[in-house]
Design a protein that fits this description.
Elements: E1 13-15, H1 25-34, E2 41-43, H2 48-52, E3 61-64, E4 70-74, H3 80-96, H4 111-115, E5 125-129, E6 134-139, E7 144-149, E8 154-158, E9 168-169, E10 178-184, E11 187-192, E12 197-202, E13 207-212, E14 225-226, E15 235-241, E16 244-249, E17 254-259, E18 264-269, E19 289-294, E20 298-303, E21 308-313, E22 321-324, E23 336-337, E24 348-352, E25 355-360, E26 365-369, E27 375-380, E28 394-398, E29 401-406, E30 411-416, E31 422-424
Parallel strand pairs: 1-2
Antiparallel strand pairs: 3-4, 5-6, 6-7, 7-8, 9-13, 10-11, 11-12, 12-13, 14-18, 15-16, 16-17, 17-18, 19-20, 20-21, 21-22, 23-27, 24-25, 25-26, 26-27, 28-29, 29-30, 30-31
Amino acid sequence: MEKKYPNKVVVLGIHSPKFKNERESESIKKAMLRYELNHPVINDADRKIWMAYGVDSWPTVAVIDPEGYIVAGSKSEHIFRDAVPVIDKLIRTHRANRTLNEKPIYFTKEQAEKASSSALWFPGKVLADGAGKRLFISDSTHHRIVITDLDGKKQSIAGTGKAGHADGAFERASFNDPQGLALDGDTLYVADRKNHMIRALDLKKHTVRTIAGLGHQGMDIRRGGAALFTGLNSPWGLLLHRGYLYIAMAGHHQIWVMDLAKRTLIPFAGNGFENLVDGSPLVSSFAQPSGLTTDGVTLFVADSEVSAVRAVPLDGKGDVSTLVGTGLFDFGDKDGVGTKAQLQHALGIVFVEGKLYVADTYNSKIKMIDPRTHACTTFAGRDKKAKLFSEPGGISYANDKLYVADTNAHRIQVIDLATKAVTTLKLQGVEAPKP
């Protein structure tokens, strides 16, 4: 919409928060930078605008004419096709009435200056390879994959640093907000979120190819098919297990699975309706699942919008269950057992030696959950001297250490499991993309 009508339509974002962390203006500023928004956003922290306009769902869109009247509205994400004829008619009418101001409006933006000075820019996910002594980082808002050794020394970088969807050699390939990672020998799978695709990196040949998705948002929540002819919807987390690639499809509120040998995709768990409902896999409900891990028997899910951790049997037999979390509007920061514990929009999860470590994103902490007892405790994040984390989105494990994508602090934090000491990974040879 902004590209089609640069001098005729002004977009105003109204941020009416759900989570406590989302009420802070500083959090909203960082989100605007992370998602490269060029329009202003109002912090409607107390939902005054929400109530004045009678809003009852996210998203809600209102088209307001140059005289201040609401002329159209929608509660759908997919408004462009329907809005174009409405706006075209408004432009004709108000040009004729001389009530349309087409003078360009420019909004200041911190994005370019800050992004060009940071080695990482809102890294979303991280994957540690203990055997290969490699670390893979989704440098999400730099739109690239950074590969280092476990000490942070650069090995290679895939992606130009500019949003796109080109396959080919590392230096020419492009991504758009890459997130989840999964490794199979010398093949790295990447959830290319905004492209709605899965990409495969050949770590020997230094090439990128697309293996799933159409390059635009898919709408079908029920049918799968050939991977390259099936639409995906905001793939956020990945897990590889015995030739199958499990995909946390945040936009569909589902878990999908790809048979890598057959190159096919099908829904694995979730009915596509945003909620927290346990039961048989395809009857259960998830809400923006964003992180995956496994103990080899159960698939554990960081189910972000319900601030929950879910458990799904990998063999598809049995029911989906909830370890922590109670509903769409239940969240907080509490240690406890089962329903007594609370998380806040957790995005990352990893299974290590019988325990689950969770990137409790909006609480800026790492929580530990026992999947047998459902006991949830704070493992790291409490430090009077310094803020250890800032909305961490990803977490991985190798060689007795946890590696955390500390998203809003633009860094990788390393936690020694034995001592709980937290240090910042010193990147060597990694620089920001040239603007």
